[in-house]
From TrEMBL:
GO terms assigned for molecular function: ATP binding; kinase activity; protein-ribulosamine 3-kinase activity
Chloroplast found in the keyword field: yes
Keyword list, A-Z: ATP-binding, Chloroplast, Kinase, Nucleotide-binding, Plastid, Transferase
Protein localization: Plastid, Chloroplast
EC number of the protein: 2.7.1.172
GO CC annotation terms, alphabetical: chloroplast
Superkingdom, taxonomy of origin: Eukaryota
SUPFAM superfamilies referenced in this protein's UniProt entry, alphabetically: Protein kinase-like (PK-like)
Free-text function comment from the UniProt entry: Initiates a process leading to the deglycation of proteins. Phosphorylates low-molecular-mass and protein-bound erythrulosamines and ribulosamines, but not fructosamines or psicosamines, on the third carbon of the sugar moiety. Protein-bound erythrulosamine 3-phosphates and ribulosamine 3-phosphates are unstable and decompose under physiological conditions.
Protein name as catalogued: Protein-ribulosamine 3-kinase, chloroplastic
Recorded catalytic activity of this chain's protein: N(6)-(D-erythrulosyl)-L-lysyl-[protein] + ATP = N(6)-(3-O-phospho-D-erythrulosyl)-L-lysyl-[protein] + ADP + H(+); N(6)-D-ribulosyl-L-lysyl-[protein] + ATP = N(6)-(3-O-phospho-D-ribulosyl)-L-lysyl-[protein] + ADP + H(+)
Gene3D superfamilies per record: 3.90.1200.10, Phosphorylase Kinase, domain 1
Organism from which the protein derives: Brassica campestris (Field mustard)
Amino acid sequence: MAAVVASLSLCYSARPNLLLRSFSRPKHRTMAAMSDDPIREWILTEGKASQITKITSVGGGCINLATHYHTDSAPFFVKTNRSIGPEMFEGEALGLEAMYETKTIRVPKPHKANSCVKQVGALPTGGSYIIMEFIEFGSRGSQAELGRKLAEMHKAGKSSKGFGFEVDNTIGSTPQINTWSTDWIEFYGEKRLGYQLKLLRDQYGDTAIYQKGYTLIQNMASLFENVVIEPCLLHGDLWSGNIAYDKNSEPVILDPACYYGHNEAEFGMSWCAGFGESFYNAYFKVMPKEEGFEKRRDLYLLYHYLNHYNLFGSGYRSSAMSIIDGYLRMLSA
């Protein structure tokens, strides 16, 4: 089934330019005063910098502001959000740490705090921040290398607790519920598709897609017959805006919405990721393709179309409904 691809322009927004300033550590400034700016405080203590020389805005996604802090010790990448508390970034930090620990694909190294000064926290004026490694990007690298290293991460990152994650996190700005489950079909039906469908019903009053979607959830088990599903560590939101290459052309993945799930669910954003044949060939050499992969592919796209509907409006409704209707016909449900 071919899903109708909605406009990608809704995923992007212009970012305001941030004021460029130069900071140095005052010799007689007290720690109490510094706490008015926790980002600056962390960089000048945990980050071991004595001077912040420049702050520049970085383009990127449409949820947070991204900033590059230039210092005399190392560069730092900082994301801020003026309307959401630190829980969102705490989930991101745990995801980055989990991916980093697989020692497979490159991710921005999450900084750990050795004192009360946190690399993730609340802003005094409202909102939150996260501080991480700044990676200098280079030219586009090999899709085959991206596929191979992503598969290696899925192979290395396993959980004995089942499907879910240590904390709930966000997909975009939508809550993503990660309560542990030993049953993937139940987890994906309730915590992924079902949660999005309930949001659509409550936010837009869309009972039609809610009812059809739940009929699909109740009948989708046959799509997983003869499939062994292991809980693999997933990036969770892998589209082109969250994929880059460093100056050595090694792939880097960013802005995760991590959880442990069926590895095929990682391709749910493939409709705006640009994965080519070389990517999939390299991936499946490490993580062999399971029986029925093609039949399940759109089921994993559906989660992200539903989320885009919730985030950006009804422009994504037809794509989601097309997938649901297609499966209901296939399953005679």
